[in-house]
Design a protein that fits this description.
By secondary structure, this protein is of the alpha+beta class. The chain has a single domain, classed as SecB-like (Bacterial Protein-export protein SecB, Roll), CATH 3.10.420.10. The chain contains one helix and four strands; from the N terminus they run ββββα. The chain has a four-stranded antiparallel β-sheet with strand order 1-4-3-2. β2 and β3 form a beta hairpin. The longest helix is centred in the C-terminal third of the chain and has 29 residues.
Length: 144
């Protein structure tokens, strides 16, 4: 199996301040929520799109000083993706390639908003999403 990144675009970047009362020396647990979707183009069996998203949102129970959403789309060309194992390897590899761009976008967005830049953690390949650890890979988001 061969694959290559053909491009990355930002589909959505949003940051909004939450005007909440914050006591001095208050620490927040940001709890970023990650989502991923993979689409295969029906007209071109070799073209895949990986949508990788992170959200940090405050709630009444767990207020945050801001809400943030960052969604990037990576376009990939892949050949010889035949088995479920091939699809699993491709999914993990595409995620591995796009994730550093997502980390950079979040850091840049928060720094530009004049708050302490948020550095998302480095996450080892194949551990970001529980389905990547499954012994058999069947992604409902993977279009056939």
């Amino acid at each position: 199996m061969k694959y290559a990144l053909r491009g990355i675009t930002a589909e959505e970047l949003s940051y909004s301040m939450n005007r909440i009362q914050i006591a001095p020396n208050t620490k927040f647990e940001l709890k970023p929520q990650f989502a991923r979707q993979i689409r295969k183009v029906k007209e071109n069996d070799n073209l895949y799109f990986l949508v990788l998203e992170v959200k940090i949102e405050g709630t009444e129970a767990e207020p945050k000083p801001f809400n943030l959403k960052c969604r990037l789309v990576g376009a990939f060309e892949a050949e010889d993706v035949v088995t479920d194992e091939d699809r699993q390897v491709l999914t993990i590899s595409m995620t591995e390639i796009v994730y550093p761009y997502l980390r950079a976008a979040v850091s840049n967005m928060t720094a530009t908003a004049f708050v302490n830049p948020i550095m998302l953690p480095v996450i080892p390949a194949g551990t970001m999403f529980p389905e990547d650890n499954a012994s058999s890979f069947e992604s409902p988001d993977m279009l056939n």
